[in-house]
Amino acid sequence: RTLRIGLIPGDGIGKEVIPAGRRILEALPASLKLKFEFVDLQAGFQTFEETGVALPDKTVEILKKECDGALFGAVSSPSKAVKGYSSPIVALRKKLDLYANVRPVKSVMTAANPIDMVIVRENTEDLYVKEERTYDAADGSGKVAEAIKRISERASSRIATMAGEIALRRQKIRDSGTASIHSSPLVTITHKSNVLSQTDGLFRTTSREALAAARFSSVGVEEQIVDSMVYKLFRQPETYDVIVAPNLYGDILSDGAAALVGSLGLVPSANVGEGFAIGEPCHGSAPDIMGKDIANPIATLRSVAVMLEFLNEELAAAKIYAAVDANLEEGKLLSPDLGGTAKTSEIVEDILRRL
Ligand code: NAI
Ligand code: MG
């Protein structure tokens, strides 16, 4: 099988870590019978400054027509609003209908308190439909601002179904003998339906229904109110396997969970739709460390693995996860964000060698 992968480095350290992502794909063992073709694509703030658009139509078109998946580095956003500029990754998620943001948060098994969870965030609706308005209060008490929180059955059902599929896939990997802190699949539905009985209520009941499907009969399903979820996530993160959440809660939980493993430089994600996935490290363009060859490439290498999982190349993904874990467990070649002194290039070489 030949997979065609779009490479969108973006800005800052995106330009340093995406080449590492390409190299690990090229270094996968020949026994997997996987070949890759790469297409270099533009997006980001530099692209905006050079061409006047942050996400050229050509990038979207090539991704749609020619690619099986993509890797996205990071983009810089100006601190003050710049006319005509808006985030290309947000636009890409929309244009390619990448309705799920999937973020695995995993420590090494040898950690004092190992954790291994995946947060599955709905990516198309909720408060992020950005339907806001501001008006003057009728009673003269000043301005009032409102935002629409939109939850649909269709979006809730497909995100919960994806969470169920991920739970099953993780169990399959455990059944094949991969060591894990979990023994059975569990999906935790996150909401605040005690207060928002209609919107979050719909998310809750629809998720429940989707996960009641016969093929998920082996998957445990529980729910948790989002505020107590934050508490438990920080106190007992090891209890979570797969978490499914509407857009806003998912955004907050996934950044919070990233803090549990020590560095942004370790945490991957993927934006997933029907038959397409974009791997994306969860960090930004990190202008403070760019150009020094010290960015941690692991978030990107793991994002390559997450992308591969959603392109049904689970074996290839497992090999990348294992090579990364071996590097971390040995702990000799670590980047400065993990307390080490190794260069990006040295870490990449070490992981490629283990692969
Ligand atoms: P950031 O994630 O770029 O950096 C936060 C801190 O983490 C910095 O100290 C940075 O050096 C460190 N860091 C991040 N990734 C690292 C890695 N791979 N290895 C080692 N250290 C790493 O977030 P920040 O500073 O808030 O934003 C910088 C720029 O990135 C802004 O223009 C922001 O808009 C953009 N950004 C883009 C994102 C995206 O493209 N998805 C996400 C977050 C921020
Ligand atoms: Mg976020």
Topology:
Elements lengths: L1 E9 L3 H13 L8 E6 L4 H7 L5 H10 L2 E6 L13 H8 L4 E7 L9 E7 L9 E5 L6 E5 L5 H23 L10 E6 L7 H13 L8 E6 H10 L6 E4 L1 H13 L10 E4 L2 E4 L18 H13 L3 H17 L13 H11 L1
Parallel strand pairs: 1-2, 1-3, 3-12, 5-10, 8-9, 8-10
Antiparallel strand pairs: 4-5, 4-11, 6-7, 11-12
Helix pairs in contact: 1-9, 1-11, 5-6, 7-8, 9-10, 10-11
The chain binds 1,4-dihydronicotinamide adenine dinucleotide (NAI) and magnesium ion (MG).
Helical percent range?
Answer: 25-40%
Low-confidence stretches: none
Q: What's the CATH class label of the domain at 1-115 and 261-355?
A: Alpha Beta
Q: Briefly note the CATH topology name of the domain at 1-115 and 261-355.
A: Isopropylmalate Dehydrogenase
End-to-end Cα distance: 20 Å
Question: How large is the radius of gyration?
Answer: 20 Å
Rounded mean pLDDT score:
95
DSSP strand count: 12
Count of alpha and pi helical runs: 11
3D shape:
globular
User: H/E series, N to C?
Assistant: EHEHHEHEEEEHEHEHEHEEHHH
Q: Numbering strands along the chain, what is their spatial order in the largest sheet?
A: 2-1-3-12-11-4-5-10-8-9
Instruction: Give the ligands present.
Output: 1,4-dihydronicotinamide adenine dinucleotide, magnesium ion
Task: Indicate the proportion of strand residues.
Answer: 15-25%
Organism: Coleophoma cylindrospora
Keywords: Amino-acid biosynthesis, Lysine biosynthesis, Magnesium, Metal-binding, NAD, Oxidoreductase, Phosphoprotein
Pfam families: Iso_dh
GO molecular function: homoisocitrate dehydrogenase activity; isocitrate dehydrogenase (NAD+) activity; magnesium ion binding; NAD binding
